[in-house]
Specification:
This protein has 160 residues and is mainly alpha-helical. Helices cover 74% and strands 0% of the residues. The protein has six helices and no strands.
Length: 160
């Protein structure tokens, strides 16, 4: 799919759609699909730049494994676990950004939320069963993506 530039209004609607689908998923299955804002953000990223979404999945995997290693050395639970996972994701994402900034200058323009989302997903991967989290995150993201793309293709949502 050709990358599309979405307006702030479309981005807000994409996040809102993801929130609604995430809430439905959580209420029906008691599984968090990688955090409440994650599916909407992932769907928007897939619409605008699938390469960035793939990079985010890689950072999520690195964050998950780094946190598992860290848990062997430090007692992490509750808010400490959440803070450690998100901080780890931010550090890894910043490292990747600095490493790729010269090669791909447009890869990181104003994607602040993209620094937090890998941590949110990794946190849920640690707290819930791995496969269930991956399936629920994928399903809710794809549902949001389909509705978002349909709205864009039908002209119901503005593009930039």
């Amino acid at each position: 799919m050709i990358p599309v530039t979405v307006t702030p209004e479309t981005a807000a609607l994409g996040i809102a759609l993801g929130l609604v689908f995430s809430l439905v998923c959580y209420l029906t299955t008691n599984l968090s699909p990688g955090g409440m804002i994650t599916p909407g953000w992932l769907a928007l990223t897939l619409v605008t730049d699938a390469g960035r979404a793939a990079l985010m999945i890689g950072v999520t995997a690195l964050t998950f494994f780094a946190t598992k290693v860290l848990q062997r050395q430090v007692i992490l639970y509750g808010k400490r676990l959440f803070a450690a996972v998100v901080l780890c994701a931010v550090v890894l994402q910043a490292t990747v950004m600095l490493a790729l900034q010269h090669e791909f200058p447009l890869l990181y323009t104003t994607q602040t939320l993209g620094f937090i989302v890998p941590g949110l997903i990794a946190y849920q991967l640690i707290r819930q069963p791995l496969a269930a989290t991956a399936i629920s995150t994928t399903a809710v993201t794809l549902g949001t993506y389909v509705v978002l793309v349909a709205g864009l293709l039908l002209g119901a949502l503005p593009t930039g």
